[in-house]
Amino acid sequence: MTSLASAPMGSAVERLRAGVEELSQRDQRVARFCIDHAEEVPFLSAGELAGRLGISGAAITRFSQRVGYDGYPHFQKTVRHDLRATLGLKQPGPQNAVVADFWASERANLENLAALPEQQLLLFAQAIAQARRVWIVGARSSYGLALMAEALLSSFRPRVEAHSADLLLSRPEQFLELTAEDAVLVYTLRRYSRATTQVVTALHERGVTVLLLTDQGASPLGKLARHCLRLPTQGSEAAASVAPFVSVTSLMIVLVARAWKGDHFKQTEALKAEFGVYEY
């Protein structure tokens, strides 16, 4: 057992970082992967992590024990707990500060969106516009964002569908509908959904273009995305802000509508008028 196992308490990654030089060459490889990809550890079984590193699952178990844990599940649980503690969410403060703090956080998040490179935004929208079909995927609260995006985007281009990642996992045969000509627009925020990671990984393996809208954490899907927009989500209370996601989604709608030159929009509006969808 290394002295790292009895090191002062801190996060699992902090302890690895402090003691990595004490480890054997093989254990250093495991430790450095866990340091650099901490956000992925909660989603990887011992076998999957071993496969990424080209070693055995037993080696992962022994590594976990040598650095002070009962085994890999204990190490994984600790990393997951540490990540939850870094979400940046705060407990409610005095009632008279809540409203002012909320608007201050929202203003800061929206102002920070201006730092996103314009070319990156244009390429993201271009991929949405050019795909044969677009699936929009989210889980839990992110599924609400996916539904909003579907409602807006479907007026300006055809073949747009929102899907719950949890429900897709129960019907994986639906993955056969998508090909390399298609794109999946993914909404995911910390704590990243395991279902979303599994669904998008499967679609990526089918050649589907992955377009990722996420926060400024290290989403495990970042490495799969053709285009990725990392948005500021600092919350003033016990929830991350979704305003940047709504704003960027609205921008994507504008850019896609321009790319489609309004033809699909005219057709959808004519149908809505025919069926009396709106009061005026």
UniProtKB/TrEMBL annotation:
It comes from the Bacteria. The keyword Secreted does not apply. InterPro entries: Homeodomain-like_sf, HTH_RpiR, RpiR-like, RpiR-like_SIS, SIS_dom, SIS_dom_sf, WH-like_DNA-bd_sf. Residues 10-86 form the HTH rpiR-type domain. Residues 124-265 form the SIS domain. The keyword Transcription regulation applies. GO terms for biological process: carbohydrate derivative metabolic process. GO terms for molecular function: carbohydrate derivative binding; DNA binding; DNA-binding transcription factor activity. Keywords: DNA-binding, Transcription, Transcription regulation. This is MurR/RpiR family transcriptional regulator. It comes from Deinococcus detaillensis.
